Inverse folding.
């Protein structure tokens, strides 16, 4: 903490030194669209601009109307069902629950009225000259575009727009709804529908539109997008981390990650959640932001490895994030569902098994994990329910408490009660479905919005594994390290995860180059000790890649082999990485 931060908050993958195929600003973008249309030998030309949920429609529509004329723009929203019909149809997926819904099985056409769609299609077909069909579902309303433009969005920016009351969910006007409810609806419905449509359209794109920064639009040719995604699928890379405050947040990341010191706290750093993180692709001096999930959709086998793809499809199953309680408070006491429970109740096919790796810890740092030997389930549940009114729950009476130090690793299979205490910096390594956390007790505090955070005792009591008491936890979950190999300048240990979890973790201590093999699984790593290291290809298949302290980085399965060695300020010193991958035998 006494050293200057070298953490890179905006990791750019430089695809090319050439800006050809990139356009910045609405004037440049619309001129390029006009130029392409002029080369199409037809009198009636149709442009479809398909939009991911969350774009600022008013900005894009105003730019299109200015360039092409208001009469040339047809909105897909005009063919949608009424708001009441959409709410009724999707209610079983949205639900009345404060946090949880059901992963929708539906696709984009379910938002549209058959008669209205037919009328608009007829209107489009009858128009001469240039017609632009715009909006979410535009490619469904008109399916034979001469030019297809995809307006993509980073999910983190979508969440910020929810918080600022700037956008609505698909087909409804709900800007003023609580952001948490908008997020839930997007997570369970909107983003599932948009992703299914995106996967069908990707190979048909002519351009991709990046409007993540309001007023600073950029457009990239499909050729460049595919060039960038292909490059990333064959080399080490980082996604764009995002940081968020929380009621228990701490101060450690402000220093190490060079964040805004005037902020009250930072609770989370999401630095490997490809569903919600972004990729920054560099073309000359132009940087384009796209969702990192696009890489998973485009090159799943190369990124994940064939066995992982065979098991999870085009989903990225490993998540890394940082939890900062240094100078903060305890996380909520919580439990994650069992696999069968998450399948039945929420439509997910695997659960959030996880672990806590301690990157740093104060002298009084603890982790709450599992249960006391003499726990009485009925008494504990009764006291948890009473605590919602009384504001008091004696957690240490029922839950195991374990002092922790830097580089400890605690395993948390689904069904295990847990939370990190104050004064620690945890690297949370887990399976991806991170929304499915059942809070049992939040220490009597309020959320950042001044309201109590939702408690999920009804769900939690259905999944708590009451047999996971102190004797079992100490043997199975706390620092269950196995030495794999030891040699001059290298020590490799297996640190988890539990046999019930599909992720394996390995820690390497090293003062000289370490050779790694992906073994046909994507590798996710974090530099947990040392200022900086360099990742290199023994065959020079990719350019050397530098990583700094506490940064998470991803190695696609297609890389096959790579070395990591101390670099720069860390040369001649001992560094350490923690690596996660999917066990094939799981």
């Amino acid at each position: 903490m006494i050293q200057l931060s070298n953490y890179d908050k905006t990791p750019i993958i430089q695809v090319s030194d050439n800006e050809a195929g990139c356009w910045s600003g609405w004037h440049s973008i619309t001129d390029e669209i006009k130029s392409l249309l002029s080369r199409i030998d037809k009198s009636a030309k149709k442009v479809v601009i398909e939009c991911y949920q969350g774009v600022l429609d008013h900005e894009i529509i105003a730019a299109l109307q200015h360039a092409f004329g208001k009469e040339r723009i047809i909105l897909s929203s005009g063919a949608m069902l009424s708001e009441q019909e959409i709410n009724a149809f999707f209610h079983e997926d949205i639900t009345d629950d404060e946090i949880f819904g059901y992963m929708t099985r539906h696709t984009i056409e379910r938002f549209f009225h058959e008669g209205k769609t037919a009328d608009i299609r007829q209107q489009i077909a009858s128009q001469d000259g240039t017609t632009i069909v715009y909006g979410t579902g535009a490619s469904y309303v008109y399916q034979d575009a001469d030019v297809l433009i995809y307006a993509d969005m980073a999910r983190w920016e979508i969440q910020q727009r929810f918080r600022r009351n700037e956008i609505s969910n698909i087909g409804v006007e709900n800007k003023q709804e609580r952001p948490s409810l908008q997020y839930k609806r997007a997570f369970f419905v909107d983003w599932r529908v948009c992703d299914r449509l995106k996967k069908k359209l990707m190979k048909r794109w002519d351009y991709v539109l990046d409007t993540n920064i309001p007023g600073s639009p950029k457009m990239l040719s499909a050729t460049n997008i595919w060039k960038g995604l292909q490059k990333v699928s064959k080399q080490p890379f980082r996604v764009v981390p995002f940081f968020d405050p929380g009621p228990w947040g701490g101060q450690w990341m402000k220093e190490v990650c060079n964040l805004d010191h005037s902020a009250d706290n930072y609770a989370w750093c999401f630095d490997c959640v490809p569903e919600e993180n972004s990729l920054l692709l560099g073309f000359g001096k132009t940087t384009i932001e796209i969702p990192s999930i696009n890489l998973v959709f485009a090159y799943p086998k190369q990124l994940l490895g064939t066995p992982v793809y065979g098991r999870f499809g085009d989903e990225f199953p490993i998540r890394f994030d940082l939890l900062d309680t240094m100078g903060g408070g305890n996380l909520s006491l919580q439990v994650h569902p069992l696999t069968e429970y998450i399948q039945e109740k929420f439509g997910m096919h695997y659960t959030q098994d996880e672990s806590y790796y301690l990157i740093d810890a104060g002298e009084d740092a603890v982790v709450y994990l599992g249960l006391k030997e003499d726990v009485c389930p009925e008494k504990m549940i009764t006291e948890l329910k009473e605590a919602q009114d009384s504001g008091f729950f004696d957690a240490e009476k029922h839950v195991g408490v374990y002092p922790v130090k830097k580089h400890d690793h605690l395993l948390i299979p689904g069904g295990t009660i847990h939370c990190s205490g104050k004064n620690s910096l945890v690297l949370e390594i887990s399976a991806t479905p991170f929304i499915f956390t059942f809070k049992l007790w939040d220490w009597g505090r309020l959320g950042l919005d001044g309201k109590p955070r939702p408690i999920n005792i009804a769900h939690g009591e259905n999944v708590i594994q009451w047999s996971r008491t102190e004797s079992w936890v100490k043997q199975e979950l706390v620092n269950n390290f196995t030495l794999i190999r030891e040699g001059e300048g290298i020590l490799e240990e297996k640190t988890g995860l539990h046999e019930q979890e599909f992720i394996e973790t390995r820690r390497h201590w090293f003062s000289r180059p370490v050779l790694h093999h992906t073994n046909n699984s994507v590798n996710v790593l974090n530099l947990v000790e040392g200022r900086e290291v360099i990742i290199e290809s023994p065959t020079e298949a990719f350019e050397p890649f530098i990583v700094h302290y506490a940064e998470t980085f991803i190695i696609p399965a297609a890389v096959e082999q790579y070395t990591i060695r101390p670099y720069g300020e860390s040369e001649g010193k001992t560094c350490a990485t923690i690596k996660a991958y999917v066990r094939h035998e799981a």
User: Anything to note?
Assistant: The longest strand covers residues 44-51. DSSP finds 17 helices and 31 strands in the chain. The first helix runs from residue 26 to 38.
